[in-house]
Write a structure and sequence with these properties.
By secondary structure, this protein is of the alpha/beta class. The protein has helices at about 10-25, 40-50, 60-70, 115-125; strands spanning about 30-35, 55-60, 80-85, 100-105, 125-135. It has a 5-stranded parallel beta sheet, sandwiched between helices. The termini are far apart. The model has no long low-confidence stretch (mean pLDDT about 90).
Length: about 150
Amino acid sequence: MQDPIKSHPTRTEQLDILATLIAKHSASGDAVLDIGCGTGYVGHLVMQRNPSLQFVGVDLAQASLDAASENLSGFEAAPILIQGDLMDPSDIALPDLQYAAAWTALTFHDLSDAAKQAVIGWMAGRLNPGGFLFIYDRVRLEEPSLF
């Protein structure tokens, strides 16, 4: 699967590191959670490294989830894909699983600070003891003086 964004020179390396950490710190059969999974690119990287994981992905856009379903087919467990809005994570109907890892990649910069705090707490509350929470994003600089 090719990176759907491709424009950032270090993105591939950064996501490779993220996927490797998640896959190595998750045991066979563990559930992993991708918040803002898009078309499943990061999930695919993780599943290539540990194909026995149970992938659960959440995204707002049904078209992205449809693409993720196709992109994440062929691994041991069928992906569980859920449409949900991160502005109110308590309304997202996740399967009742404990997750070895949860991550979000390039999603947080679009959320308000209050929504970020709510999503972090919501994700952390679903982790196994000793589970990992990863946030990969950019800092949004909106004022020229910040550059």
